Here is the input.
Amino acid sequence: MRIFRAFIAIGVAAFYFLVFAPPMFMSPSRINTGLEVIKTGALIQPNIVRVSPGSPAYRAGLRTGDVLGCLNSRDYALLILPALGNVPGYAAGTQISTCVHRDGVIKRITFVADVGPPVPNAYGTKALSALRALVVLVFYITGIALVLARPGLMTWLFYVYCLWNAPSLAADQVWSILSPPFYLIATAPLDFGVSAAGAVLLVFSILVPDSRVTHGWRRIAFNLVAALAIAGMLLTVINTLQTKAVISQIPVNFVDEAFTVLTAIVIVSRLFAMEHDERARFGWAAFAIIFGVVMNDLRNVLAQGDTRWLSVVAGDLTVVMPLALMYAIGKRHVIDVRFVISRTVVYAILTTVLVGVIGAVDWLTSSYLSEVRVAMVIDAAVTIALAFVFHRIYGWMESVVDFVLFRRKYNAETYLRRVAHSLTFAQSEEAIDNAIVGDPYLKLDLTAAALYGVAGHTYTVRHARGWDAAAVPPLDRDHDLVRFMLAERAKIDVGDLNAHLSEPFRANGGAPTVAVPLFQGNHLTSFAVYGIHRDGTKLDPDEVETLEHLCAAAAQAYTGLELAKYKDRAAVALATGA
Here is the structure.
């Protein structure tokens, strides 16, 4: 599934990049038709044109006052959009087709326009174009990394926003040199994305930092915005495909600005509603979203006329958004992706080495061995050998990546595994209790940790850090959490159970995230519960596995102590003759 997800995410991003990036460095000849749209100032107006005498359009039979129709998207861009500030490129000799309704007769007109000087660079210079392309590439890398590391509605929405943040102006101008079908394929996704990006970012702002929409105003806002976004996208599709009229940009800009304001209101409202620690983590993400959406809105509003250079500056400043979000994710853990990033890096390294080695072997065998069967045998043998080697070194490479990228986490897990190994030599229950509670609490920087021990028909807190042990109520044998552990004999994600299980803990400083049982034979003699990290992130699967290993070693250590006490009592009884 991850391979399929990577194929989709990278493939779609590559398509968008190949569509918008090349035109940023191309300067084809512009078109000279001698025709321009007469702007009436209406929100929606027909394609009424003014034609210069002697021009290609005039020679073809078009006259001032004609209303153009029968236009495909490419020819609409060539004939109508220049009057709206666009400067389309034109390939010499390309036929343009349109029709007019005159004297009760629809007259089809086809003509070839003259070529003019080169189309100016949409972003000022090639250096600025390269900077703008790099900005969008940063967006794409951020979006792809998130959907691979933490797939969900929230991250896919941000990925879509990253795609639709691509600049469309150069593509609209340059790809008019293509045939009508290819022009539509190249420009329609970009134009649609630019119009719908604000709605997608607003929905993302309601969801972040997770994909679940809680009850209350967030759910109402999410449903309302999602409905408006879908309606706006449908209108965008209609507007992109229609060629019968000129639609004013005023309502489009108004909608963009409305989404900008709403996004800022949602983010600020959520900041005020958060606890202090969560607000501190979310602050960078909030800044990134608000700054990015404001710059993107300015980019679109300033794209026409004398302010176009300001539009270029605003567009380049949008790079602050993905960079700030990457900081919020990597350092503040607004979206915790540490566990998956380590795996993703390992997969990337192994895949690169695998492809490189197999490619090199294939090149060598094809270059120096003329016998096809021998080459195939060598390729197969190398591939099988690599599979065995990679299987053996995967764990080692994962440890190296964790050590390099997440050294604090790596050191904590390494220390806890050493503690688990040392429990065989523990001489007291207090030492084992502290290893289960105190060491994870400190090394993993947890909000809380506690150890429950059995006492008759109830489990009471025997040792705790971060919670008031006396205030946390005991759990009887019929409690849901106890029954689940007895039935499954495995760790339990407390968040997956009913919310009321967390209430006794939440009142004392924070709910647990995982419970790990300690079985001695078939008896659940105790269990440990652990909270989240103090920075607000959940325990990742590696950390949970380390805690399970620690508790399993502790259970054996408890059993060892009991056996030692039994032997001591038996020896004393034997010596005294009791």
Remarks:
- DSSP finds 19 helices and 15 strands in the chain.
- Residues 428-567 form a domain with the Beta-Lactamase fold (CATH 3.30.450.40).
- The longest strand covers residues 95-102.
